[in-house]
C-alpha cells in the first residue's frame, strides 16, 4: 500500500463576518477536497497538545506520528538540522528572523517577505561583524535564519515571543526576557548598526521596500537525542517535500528522505503541480510521501483573506485534483497542521479538520472539507499523532 500526506499549513481558521461567517477554508472553492471527504473519513485532530506552543513544530511533529511532548525537540535545533548544522553539547540553536521595527512597532516579522537572495548577504554581514566563539550565524530561507550560541544554556529557559505573534504591536518589552537574556539583548543591540550599514538594506530602502532593522531570536533548541527513526517506528519508508527548514529538519532528524523538487517554495509562487507530481514519482520507491505546502500559513500571517483563499484553492486545483486520480491505489491524508486565523495573524492550538481516503478507509458522515463539517462527524483524534495510525492501519 502506498500513502500520501498533504499538509495545508495553517489553512484552518475562524469564521469571518466578511465571508458570511465562513472560514477561509469554507469560503474557498475546493471541489477536490470535498470529493475526498465524500469518499472517505472526515474528522478533527488535536495536533497541538494542551500547554504546548501552537507552532508547526508541535503540529507537524504530530502529523508525522510523533508525540510533540515526549519527543520534544526545540524548533531552533530542528531548523538547524535542515541546514546541516551540528550542535555541540554546550550550544543552543535559535531561530533568528530578520524583522522591520518602526517606531517601536513590529511592522514586519519577515522584513517585507525578503527573499533568500537578499537575506543571505545580510546574514553574511552579521556573521562577519558579530560572529565569534560565542555566536554563529547561518542563512536559511527568506527571512528565517539560525543563530547558534555557545556557552549559555540558560537561553533555553528564557521567555520568547515569536515576532509573528506581535505583528503591528509594540515590539519593545517583548524581546527575550528572563535571567541570562542580556547576552541576546546585547547582540540585538549590536546588530542594528550592522543592518543599517548593509548595502542590501540600503538598496531595499531606496526601492521603497522594508529594510531589516533588527534581528529577532526565539524558539531555542539543543541537539536532539533518542528520536526513533521513522522507518523503525512505522515499518515503512518515507520521503518529504517542503519549502521550509522546519519540515526538512524534522525529516533529517527522523531519517525521512528529503526530496529536491524544482520550484518548491514557501510562498504563493510555489509550483504546486510540480511539487505533487514530484511527490508521486517518489512514491514509486517509497511507501509514504509527505507533501507540505506553506502558502496558506504565510497568507494567514499577512492577514490576507483573499490571498489565503487563493492559496487553498491552488492546492485543491493543482494538487488534490492530481491525487484524486490515484485514489484507487494510494491512501491519502489531507489536513492543516494548525489554524492560522487571518484576524490574529498567528497560530492557535485548536483542532484541525482532516480527511482520509483511499483503499480500506471506511466512509463516515463527512460531506465537505471544512471545519464545521469535520466537527459534525463527531470523530476527534486526540492526541493528534494518532492520525498516522489511521493512515497506516
Describe the secondary-structure layout.
Elements (H helix, E strand, L loop, with lengths): L1 E7 L15 H4 L3 H9 L1 E5 L10 H8 L11 H8 L8 E12 L2 E4 L7 H15 L4 E7 L2 E7 L31 H15 L2 H8 L7 E8 L8 H5 L3 E4 L3 H10 L2 E2 L13 H11 L5 E6 L1 H7 L3 H20 L5 E6 L16 E6 L13 H6 L3 E2 L5 H6 L1
Give an account of the 3D structure.
- Helix content is 34%, strand content 19%.
- Strand 8 (238-241), helix 9 (245-254) and strand 9 form a beta-alpha-beta unit.
- The model has no long low-confidence stretch (mean pLDDT 97).
- The longest helix has 20 residues, at 305-324.
- The protein is of the alpha/beta class and 393 residues long.
- It is globular and about 60 Å long.
- The strands form 2 sheets. An 8-stranded mixed beta sheet has the order 9-8-10-1-11-12-2-13, with helices on both faces.
Amino acid at each position: 500500500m502506498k500513502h500520501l500526506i498533504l499538509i495545508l499549513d495553517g489553512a484552518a481558521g475562524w469564521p469571518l463576518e466578511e465571508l458570511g461567517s465562513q472560514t477561509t477554508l469554507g469560503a474557498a472553492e475546493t471541489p477536490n477536497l470535498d470529493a475526498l471527504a465524500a469518499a472517505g473519513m472526515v474528522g478533527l485532530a488535536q495536533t497541538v497538545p494542551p500547554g504546548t506552543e501552537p507552532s508547526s513544530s508541535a503540529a507537524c511533529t504530530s502529523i508525522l506520528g510523533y508525540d510533540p511532548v515526549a519527543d520534544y525537540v526545540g524548533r531552533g535545533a530542528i531548523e538547524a538540522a535542515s541546514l546541516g548544522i551540528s550542535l555541540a553539547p554546550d550550544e543552543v540553536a535559535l531561530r533568528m528572523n530578520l524583522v522591520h521595527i518602526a517606531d517601536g512597532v513590529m511592522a514586519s516579522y519577515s522584513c517585507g517577505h525578503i527573499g533568500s537572495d537578499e537575506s543571505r548577504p545580510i546574514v553574511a554581514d552579521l556573521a562577519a561583524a558579530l560572529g565569534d566563539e560565542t555566536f554563529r550565524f547561518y542563512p536559511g530561507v527568506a527571512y528565517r535564519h539560525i543563530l547558534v550560541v555557545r556557552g549559555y544554556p540558560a537561553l533555553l529557559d528564557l521567555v520568547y515571543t515569536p515576532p509573528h505573534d506581535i505583528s503591528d504591536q509594540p515590539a519593545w518589552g517583548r524581546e527575550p526576557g528572563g535571567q541570562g537574556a542580556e547576552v541576546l539583548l546585547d547582540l540585538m543591540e549590536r546588530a542594528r548598526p550592522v543592518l543599517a550599514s548593509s548595502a542590501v538594506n540600503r538598496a531595499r530602502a531606496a526601492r521603497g521596500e522594508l529594510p531589516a532593522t533588527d534581528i529577532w531570536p526565539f524558539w531555542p533548541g539543543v541537539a536532539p537525542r533518542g528520536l526513533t527513526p521513522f522507518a523503525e517506528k512505522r515499518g515503512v519508508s518515507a520521503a518529504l517535500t517542503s519549502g521550509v527548514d522546519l519540515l526538512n529538519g524534522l525529516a533529517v532528524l527522523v531519517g525521512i528522505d528529503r526530496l529536491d523538487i524544482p520550484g518548491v517554495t514557501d510562498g504563493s509562487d510555489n509550483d504546486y503541480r510540480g511539487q505533487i507530481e514530484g511527490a508521486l514519482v517518489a512514491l514509486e520507491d517509497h511507501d509514504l510521501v509527505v507533501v507540505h505546502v506553506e502558502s496558506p500559513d504565510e497568507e494567514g500571517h499577512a492577514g490576507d483573506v483573499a490571498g489565503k483563499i487563493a492559496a487553498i484553492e491552488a492546492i485543491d486545483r493543482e494538487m488534490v485534483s492530481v491525487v484524486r486520480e490515484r485514489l484507487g491505489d494510494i491512501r491519502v491524508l489531507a489536513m492543516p497542521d494548525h489554524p492560522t486565523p487571518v484576524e490574529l495573524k498567528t497560530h492557535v492550538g485548536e483542532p484541525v479538520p482532516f480527511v482520509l481516503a483511499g483503499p480500506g478507509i471506511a466512509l463516515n458522515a463527512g460531506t465537505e472539507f471544512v471545519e464545521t463539517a469535520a466537527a459534525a462527524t463527531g470523530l476527534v483524534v486526540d492526541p493528534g499523532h494518532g492520525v498516522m495510525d489511521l493512515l497506516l492501519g
